[in-house]
Amino acid sequence: MKLLNLNDGVEAGVMCVEPTLTNDGMDARNLAKAHKGPIVTHLEHLPRGIHETPEERKNHWFVGSVDQGTTSSRFLIFNGEGDPVASHQIEFENLYPKSGWHEHDPMTLLNSVEECIEGAMRKFQRLGFSKNDIRSIGITNQRETTLVWDHETGEPLYNAVVWSDTRTKSLVRDLKAKDGADAIKDFCGLPLSTYPSSVKLLWLIENVEAVKQAYEEGRLAFGTVDTWLIYKLNGGAQAESPVHVTDSTNASRTMFMNIRTLQYDDKLLGFFGIDRTKVHLPKIVPSSDPECFGRIASGALSGVPIAGCLGDQSSALVGQCGFNPGQAKNTYGTGCFLLYNVGTEPVISQYGLLSTVAYDFGQGRAPVYALEGSIAVAGAGVTFLQNNLNFIENAKQINDLAESVPDNGGVVFVTAFSGLFAPYWIDDAKGTLFGITQHTQKGHIARATLEATCFQTKAILDAMEKDSGCKLKLLAVDGGLSNSDLTMQTQADISGIPVDRPAMCETTALGAAIAAGLATGVWSDTTELQEVNRTGRKVFEPKISRKCAEKRFKKWNQAVQMSRGWLQDNDNEDDECDEEVKKA
Question: Which residue among 265, 446, 469, 545 is buried most deeply as judged by most CB within 10 Å?
Fold first, then answer.
């Protein structure tokens, strides 16, 4: 065999055989571009008519992953080793029609995903591959965000109400006063708050005429973002057999699903006053399945099966290969979400955490559960400094601004833009800055913004230790804000726990790809994934004393208590007053 030294997009010095077509129509030159390390086709040691070993063939099966988030959509294509080889990302407009309201245009979500698929596929094809090389795709999505559409036409009836939206705060107060409210968490794992899908759907039925009419006429279809995307990517109402499904990780965020049976619970639906005969609820299926999610109906991936679906935080746990009880990950995205694997039996938190489905790979495997701590504002705090206060021109500058000062200068920023989530669950808090003096500079506020996420994570870790009886030894991290060395070092210092960051931080998208790949033979079991995304990880060790860390945390807790009570029962009167001031 003649060996060639390929330098066109391949690591220098990689030795590959002269281009020889495999039985997939790929040649070694193009194959090398999509892989780390040497790619060699060994023709001499194989039986006649066989061109690849099973291990070699697995390396050039690819899996796609839709990652639909709060501020952007992405599509990535991973190889059999879990490395991304092509991707495309689009940011889209977030809508804030009123204070505390947060919406998305449902068609914008769909169009952004379809555009990302087309963009990534163009890059993938330039590497010499085609859709025939993609075994399947997975979908991961922002959770709790609620969509409603006409079951007969497939047309949206209202904007998507985003997970962080707080318009339901008065509705939640009323629900908390109902008989049986205290028992709800034992059935679904979630406390009553503005966060889950249930209260958003109830608000839509009560306040949007088109939704109310569709509900009364039995035409109302409900779903979270995964359900909407799967429905539309399969062709929507025009499909021969419309696909209306969700997986158990997403369904566990609605408050409609019994966390033990993984099916809708009539007691839960009854508590919220939802009549199952009037609303089309998506069928709950495992997170990994070769048939349940259908196939893409059109475009560059027409005919490719959708075989995996996970809510974004569950997907990140899978992408970090957190398959064993006691493993945990923290994703620093728009919000911040810490999941702790508790095994195959749900643990109902006594310390302000959520009980949720981590993943359910089906095929006779038991579902796996997690304790979760949810923080409403993480990267959203950086976006606030950029867009609202013009502190920075782009998010990447936050680190430099924060490092322009040696410390926070006594400033504490409780970033309660949507109240405070776990473990506090304070609905009446609003964003509050403490400790401002004439000495305060932009850098101090930038530091305090980053520290707010770290302090809330510390509070969640403390609650997890109480619930589980075990102290976490290592915290795996991912998400955009995890790229900040300052933030990750601060997290290690405040929590007293080493922080482990992978070199490849696209773990959320990787998790959905893993779910799809497990369903379609790219990987046969999670044991084959032990080395995925393990190279190049960086560990941040705590550098300050526990006495100093606890003193800082005490100051944070003081600020949290002082941020309470900004939202009162007379909010409507406040709104009327605000309108009067505007007119004056």
Answer: 446
Residue 510 near residue 63 (C-beta atoms within 8 A): no
Radius of gyration in angstroms for the set of CA atoms belonging to the chain, rounded to a whole number: 24
pTM score: 0.82
CA distance 578 to 584: 10
- Closest by CA position to 282, among listed 141, 164, 172: 141
- Helix axis angle, 442-468 to 546-562, nearest 10°: 100
Q: Which amino acid is at 353?
A: L
Decide if 164 contacts 207 (C-beta within 8 A). no
**Residues 290, 189, 477, 336, Cα dihedral to 10°:** 110
Task: From first to last of the 584 residues of the chain, give the pLDDT tens digit.
Answer: 333 232 333 222 222 322 333 333 333 333 444 444 444 343 344 445 445 555 555 456 899 999 999 999 999 999 888 889 999 999 999 999 998 899 999 999 999 999 999 999 999 999 999 999 999 999 999 999 999 999 999 999 999 999 999 999 999 999 999 999 989 999 999 999 998 999 999 999 999 999 999 999 999 999 999 999 999 999 999 999 999 999 999 999 999 999 999 999 999 999 999 999 999 999 999 999 999 999 999 999 999 999 999 999 999 999 988 898 988 999 998 889 899 999 999 999 899 899 999 999 988 889 999 999 988 889 889 999 999 999 999 888 999 999 999 999 999 999 998 888 888 888 888 899 999 999 999 999 999 999 999 999 999 999 988 988 888 889 999 888 998 999 999 999 999 999 999 888 889 999 999 999 999 988 888 888 877 877 788 999 999 999 999 999 999 999 999 998 876 655 555 556 666 666 65
What does DSSP assign to residue 16? E
Cβ-contact 181, 268 below 8 angstroms:
no
Residue 421 vs residues 25, 271, 414, 416: alpha-carbon distances, Å: 52, 22, 12, 9
| Cα 153 to the center of its chain, rounded Å | 29
Q: Which helix (H) or strand (E) holds 561?
A: helix 546-562
Q: Are the CB atoms for 301 and 310 separated by under 8 Å?
A: no
Omega before 290 cis (within 30°)?
Answer: no
Nearest to 517 by CA among 339, 120, 249, 509: 509
Pairwise CA distance, residues 24 & 57, whole Å: 9
